[in-house]
Amino acid sequence: MAFVHTSVNQTSQSYLSNEQRYNYTTPKSFLEFIRLYQSLLHRHRKELKCKTERLENGLLKLHSTSTQVDDLKAKLAAQELELKQKNEDADKLIRVVGVETDKVSREKAMADGEEQKVALIMLEVKQKQKDCEEDLAKAEPALTAAQAALNTLNKTNLTELKSFGSPPLAVSNVSAAVMVLMAPGGRVPKDRSWKAAKVTMAKVDGFLDSLINFNKENIHENCLKAIRPYLQDPEFNPEFVATKSYAAAGLCSWVINIVRFYEVFCDVEPKRQALSRATADLTAAQEKLAAIKAKIAHLNENLAKLTAKFEKATADKLKCQQEAEVTAGTISLANRLVGGLASENVRWAEAVQNFKQQEQTLCGDILLITAFISYLGFFTKKYRQSLMDGTWRPYLSQLKTPIPVTPTLDPLRMLMDDADVATWQNEGLPADRISIENATILINCERWPLIVDPQLQGIKWIKNKYGEDLRVTQIGQKGYLQTIEHALEAGDAVLIENLEESVDPVLGPLLGREVIKKGRFIKIGDKECEYNPKFRLILHTKLANPHYQPELQAQATLINFTVTRDGLEDQLLAAVVSMERPDLEQLKSDLTKQQNGFKITLKTLEDSLLSCLSSASGNFLEETALVENLEITKQTAAKVEKKVQEAKVTEVKINEAREHYRPAAARASLLYFIMSDLSKIHPMYRFSLKAFSIVFQKAVERAAPNESLRERVANLIDSITFSVYQYTARGLFECDKLTYLAQLTFQILLMNREVNAAELDFLLRSPVQTGTTSPVEFLSDQAWGAIKVLSSMEEFCNLDRDIEGSAKSWKKFVESECPEKEKLPQEWKNKTALQHLCVMRAMRPDRMTYAMQNFVEEKLGSKYVVGRALDFATSFEESGPATPMFFILSPGVDPLKDVESQGKKLGYTFNNRNFHNVSLGQGQEVVAEAALDFAAKKGHWVILQNIHLVAKWLRTLEKKLEEHSKNSHPEFRVFMSAEPAPSPEGHIIPQGILENSIKITSEPPTGMHANLHKALDNFTQDTLEMCSRETEFKSILFALCYFHAVVAERRKFGPQGWNCSYPFNTGDLTISVNVLYNFLEANAQVPYDDLRYLFGEIMYGGHITDNWDRRLCRTYLREFIRPEMLEGELSLAPGFPLPGNMDYNGYHQYIDAELPPESPYLYGLHPNAEIGFLTQTSEKLFHTVLELQPRDSQAGDGAGATREDKIKALLEEILERVTDEFNIPELMAKVEERTPYIVVALQECGQMNILTREIQRSLRELELGLKGELTMTSHMENLQNALYFDMVPESWARRAYPSTAGLAAWFLDLLNRIKELEAWTSDFTMPSTVWLTGFFNPQSFLTAVMQSTARKNEWPLDQMALQCDVTKKNREEFRSPPRVGVYVHGLFMEGARWDTQAGIITEAKLKDLTPPMPVMFIKAIPADKQDCCSVYCCPVYKTSQRGPTYVWTFNLKTKENPSKWVMAGVALLLQI
Fold this sequence. Notes:
Structural class: alpha/beta
Low-confidence stretches: 1193-1200
Distance between the termini: 53 Å
Number of helices: 53
């Protein structure tokens, strides 16, 4: 445990060094670590025991089930024998019953047949009967008529008829017809005369009876034939006959109707016979059917008896069968259970085995897990892995008594499962590993979690997780203490968001859990609040890199929720796919939720399965429902598992489709992290993920469409890259834009693997091989040193030899005006763009800014280097109530004019009272708050100027802006302006304000052309005409404008321009013009001296603090404002004479037409000044980009050396080469007289001892730290960084002399200084020439020169001066020191050169920035004997930084006007 604690301390130092993040451990952290270990160990032991028991119980049930199967099988066998016997008995009965049933069936079939026959016969009889009856019904009328006719006959009328002697023919025909009809046997009498008729009718009664009883149904055929003629006789008609005889009419009617009846009867008779026969058949059939039915009834009776017997046998059989089935079912259930849970049986057995193994490794596992929770939360992924796998595990395994640990232990697996992760992801937790780790730590830590969440992803998940039960508050928010108190008592969760680096002391007891009264209360302020153990406190900050004090870190578990590059890439991939393929992303989203749901379901089912199995008691196989429930659960789990597998296949397909868009997401993620890193350059450069996401979304929408997916993705990448560049660049200072572009380009190329890391490392570091001398005159020693390093790389092998061998072509390349546009000589011309840059970096560092622009243009496109700044209106469209606009101010620029102009267009002005302008300062905070509140309601605009002046109020402003970002009027806008702090330490603008704002930098124009136009823009034609002395006024005004442009733009040349940077502004110019107007109006003559004094000492001079800068200002004014200007003889710069009397537009046109191209000549400087300025700019550019590189990357992969290896190697080399201290007492014993020179020498030795002592001490301390024997401190980390970045460590620099060199050159210089001191102090003999550079304090040595002379000549020291004579010799030509004074060497001239032959200052040679001076003879003389004629008072500085490194002033001879050298910034430097 102690090792874990100390190893975290060491890693925290590396973390601070590499990432600038503060992570502390304290004794309290260690105690909390122990407490959490005890808690987790107890909990996991209990959980492990519970899990093991559950699984063992489940396995026991499965085992007992399989043993029960054998008993059940024996029982089943007996039941099956019994069942077999019963089956045989039943089968016999079945056969008997079958036979009887067949009989019955046959008889029944016969009966059915007979029944069908009877039915048919009955139908036939009925039909025939019906037909007969119908036909008889037809004969009935005739029969009735015949009967009626007979009824008309009686004895009387028959007697009357008989009495006719000779009847009419009709009557005789009737009697004849009767005779024919009644002829017996069909023998028709031939004699049918009336006579014969009368005989027939002789006996009237008999005749009448014969008529009545006439067999009407059997009339002979002969009779019918014979009677036909009569019937056909028309007179044979009863009605007609009745006229003759009534009786004859009756007979006539009878004959007719009897014949009619017979005719019908003849038709009916066959049918009646058929009916008779059918009736007979029916009777017979019915009798047969009755007999059969009787037989069937008898058979059925027998069958019923047999059936009853069979049913009893069957019931017995069924009962036996059911018992067997129950037994078989139980066996089946058991088999199903054992078979169905076979996989669980194996898995649970393995799990039990694993749990038992876990019991053995539990102590070690919980130790790692506790360390993970307690200490790793604030670290990033790399450091977590390093500690867990690279430090702790090896340590535990290498102990004498190793602590057993599960080899493949994943801390997350013991703290949560897939179902937990699925739930968290459904709640909005990002899916990357680090986020899951963070969530696990947050859930399991015992100290209050404090999440560092700049992108607000963690807080989003927390709010979703806890939902409405979470109480959210902020420190300082109204009633926040009451919220905490209520939650403390109720046991609720409280989220304190947007925490700053300091916490309200009133919360101290709560953060420290300082419970009182037996743990029942916690004191908050003066109030004792009841403490509910369920209370949960979550702290949250959106600060990207907070520095929390150790005491707070001891009370809280810091968790770093900062978005990771991989995590952001996945989120952006989801975003781009949802815009490009919403169907795909919706499917992916649904699938993810479904998969998460499946995981949760599977976990629930598994628990349910175990729970059911464990809770079952007794012979649970009899509980079919329980077993079936287990089976259903298992089946459901199998279905879900199948769906999971199907979903995985679908997911693979979806992912394949989504992966096409990954390059766009990867590029966007890279861009965001590059953008985030810009805050390392300047703390103003803060950007939020929320704002970035909006830019990203708009870029996707703006990307050019294309049917080809590959082309579309390429368009997306281009649109995203350029949109983010534009968004970022508008908030950067000009000097940082190229840095950003360079970093952007390099990182894109690195991601695409298009650059060699070793080459990039050379480009950024530009290492130099020290101690080399250039063999060619066109390259400096330093450039040659860089070439030698470059030549050691494979791609540049033999470059040094080629330069020596082809010096002419290389010289042409090096001395060309724009070498970045030229190809490299000979075979080197085919080198890559980056390799070309490397060569340029070594040979022409001054052209690297232009070379980088070309490189960016080649790799990214011309729009990145020629793009104009976005106009204000475009930026304004992106603003809103939640998105203020923030102007980063620069001297001499007022960006709020753009706001006012835009306001006028949209109707927001002071006159309309909807435009509020508050200039912040003392007492204005209340006014600003009131304006913000009012404007938020009404939709007005508010300008808050110079917010940097109210540091204490800025947090209030941040909260106020956050408050108004929601539910404000949609037209509400806020515009803020602030100056950037001079140093990162002085930065005060809150991160929240900067991240949520659209940042716009406002910088003065660059270049003389723009500056001169801008200076003139401060005036109008009316200004030019306001003075009565127009010519003088205009000339001096224009000269002042030129002067203003010169002093403002000269800043870019660094120390050679101005020793210090001054905030010259347009106010200086306008006031100077007002003074000019007043003086010209008040004086008859132009008071040049007065004007120059007012301008140079007061208006502009009021800013100036350095005397040499004041001299420069005065010199400019003396050159620009003098009487010659009115005579047309004055040139403001070579080739740019002062214009004459013109109007306002004429001056602007004159500038456009006559002003020479931009060059140092316009400022009185030599072109070399630009080379120096450009070189420094490029050095700063690459140094900044180097610092932006990921610190864990292996520098120059080709070298294969890690950062730590490089540092160790350098550390050992320095320790080996640095010499022992000077023995001061021993040196003092050597000298007899302590002359001024000896005093200086001893002082220098003392200073050197202090420096070398610190070097050795700090390096040895760092060495122990790197070995792990000492805890790394911040000083050691700073030293480590300095060694790695080739910088002089701060603690060394503080004890050393000023220097601009990198560490390698500085250390070589140090060794040379020590060597010089050793040579001097060996016998304290003055060297023939003194290396003036080698002194800590050269002033003391020069003072010693005066002191020696003063003592020798007894002159007063305060009336002496040093005379400097430049010799024509180099140091090697001197063998002894002078008798008086000293020879000094090692000086360089900047801004000009020394003409050795003529002995004067002259123009410098192009590209020779700091030519060395010959040996100089310094001697002391009385001040009044100084030669002040034709001399330039040249300042001497220790380094090119000038300013505070001033040493002395040497008067150097010149034939030119000294003002030329003043304006050229000529100075002597001790170091270059």
